[in-house]
Amino acid sequence: MNVAEQHTARFRNKVPQVTLVFWAIKVMSTTVGETGADYLAVHAGLGTAATDGITLTLLVAALTLQMRMSHYVPWIYWLTVVLVSVVGTQITDALTDAMGVSLYVSTPIFAATLAATFALWFTAERTLSIHTIVTARRELFYWTAILFTFALGTAAGDLATEAVGLGFNLGVVVFGAMIAVVTAAYYLGANAVSCFWVGYILTRPLGASLGDLLSQSREYGGLGLGSVYTSLGFLTVIIALVAVLTLHRSTIMNERA
């Protein structure tokens, strides 16, 4: 692929380039998804069933809009990520809380399901790269994998912080350190695709632990900001960053015109 073809593929790609801003929004969207769902279910009094129905409906609508786009649109993409984060979390919570499935069971199940998704994706496309999500089939594989990374990240994070007793304070340190190791491995020459997906999984429990650290009361070791202020604060930053990304992309598109 020559330089011109690379630029064309990048422009047509339906997902963003992986940058520091990408990871920042990813972590914050995870936190917003976690605390936002809790707020709707508990503080707003909607209950688990109504919250699940609302978020699933919103996800289907956002994903349909995302799939209809011919190129990457920042606000649509990140809205979809936030909603996938919520639904992925709700899948794990439903298994654990409603059905009584142990985290020691659900975590390997989600890991196997994600591995199967990657195997089918690679068999069909011969690549797991996120730099060429330019067809509907690749995008469907991509979003399926994203959903299961959130479900797996939720299960593994809850297993570590709750079942094993790591706690959210130490969870921030441990998951942050694991991401640092993956980042170092990437810069030392490890497979970029593998590093991306491992990092994507780990940012889910990191974001959840960070959200708990900020929102939980001081009595339980948190900073006591509450789920509302934590969600609104992170959501404000996400909107600002997405606005910057949208403006930047509009500038690039105008230059290409």
TrEMBL record:
* Keywords (A to Z) from UniProt: Membrane, Transmembrane, Transmembrane helix
Q: Does the keyword Transmembrane apply?
A: yes
Question: InterPro entries, per this entry?
Answer: DUF347
- Which residue ranges run through the membrane? 40-65, 72-91, 103-124, 140-160, 166-188, 195-214, 226-247
**What's the protein name?**
Membrane-anchored protein
Q: Which organism is the protein's source? A: Tardiphaga robiniae
Upper lineage is: Bacteria, Pseudomonadati, Pseudomonadota, Alphaproteobacteria, Hyphomicrobiales
